[in-house]
Amino acid sequence: MELTDLKLHHFRNYEAATLHFQPGVNVFLGQNAQGKTNLLESIYALALARSHRTKIDKDLVQWGQSQARIEGLVKNRFGKLPLSLSWTNRGKQARVNHLDQPRLSGYIGQLNVILFAPEDLDLVKGPPAVRRRFIDIEFGQMNRTYLQLSAQYKRVLKDRNAYLKAWSFGQKKDDVFLTVLTDQLVELGAKLMLLKKRFLTELGQAAARIHAAVANQQEELVLHYKTGVDLSQLTDQKTAEEALTAAFKKQAEREKKQGTTLVGPHRDDFVIEVNGVDVSNFGSQGQQRTAALALKLGEIDLMHQETGEYPVLLLDDVLSELDANRQTHLLMTIENKVQTFITAPSLSEVARSLIKEPKVFLVKDGTIQEEQH
């Protein structure tokens, strides 16, 4: 999979821009605050119909304008596919092959991307919410069933939390309706947890291979799924539902007092161990960086395994955060495999020696010029 063309219209600090990319490595060079990350953000948004930097859509519209638009041409094993995403006063509009998509679940997955930025170190040492978001975004691209289940689960969870909150404030409520909501969460939650277990097992295997190579076979990385039920009970839908139902019964009174749902995949996490030690709490900064890098690179092979296509890789100023050894493994892993977009003030000697014939764009104050050799 690759992005061959990109057009921006009033997106961030770009009034208009038309870019053509090559299948290999494309590099955006420029000083800070010139618009490099905005370009990567536009590719990410084109793929996922959302920014990775803000939840406020109007932030993406150029100052003084009323609308913004991104257009892209994706090339996959089936041919070429036009995508477009626009933001207006009426909301967000997504199109695939010039056809409106009323649901974003029908749009997401047409262009798969993996973003790696310095803040992704929080994936290892950050709170559980960061890792849950990582699972939802990445697996949602790979598996449409997961994406749809996740959306349904969140809607029921919102209703159940609102009901429990009113209950905690002393408003008289009906146990029967709460049971209906709980049963819906149990069914959806069991399906999500089974998918998460499979995803994390496969990601752990891929990341372990990469981590061992970066660490010169001296360290072993293992991912452990951390959930509210015994993992041995996550074998099939029936057993998973029984386990979740029992967990809900155990927490029933606490939920009514606290006014929130205490059981389910929305409270899941995963633990990253290196040589048997939780690297998020006890690992060195170097181990944490290696673990984060291994997870991100492991996604590449997993996404190919799940979808039949390699994703597009976005590296936002990440090379400067990695030492020469990790830079080398990163660039050797992606060589001749995935289309890659890199932002950087400049390319290190390591990068220039490993990247074969990159297409370089010079970015300055919202203007883009292709570097001439």
From TrEMBL:
ATP binds at residues 30-37. Pfam families: SMC_N (PF02463). It comes from the Bacteria. PROSITE patterns: RECF_1, RECF_2. Residues 3-345 form the RecF/RecN/SMC N-terminal domain. It comes from Fructobacillus papyriferae. PANTHER family: DNA REPLICATION AND REPAIR PROTEIN RECF. It is found in: Cytoplasm. Belongs to the RecF family. Keywords: ATP-binding, Cytoplasm, DNA damage, DNA repair, DNA replication, DNA-binding, Nucleotide-binding, SOS response. Signal peptide: none annotated. Its main location: cytoplasm. InterPro entries: DNA-binding_RecF, DNA-binding_RecF_CS, P-loop_NTPase, RecF/RecN/SMC_N, RecF_2. This is DNA replication and repair protein RecF. The RecF protein is involved in DNA metabolism; it is required for DNA replication and normal SOS inducibility. RecF binds preferentially to single-stranded, linear DNA. It also seems to bind ATP.
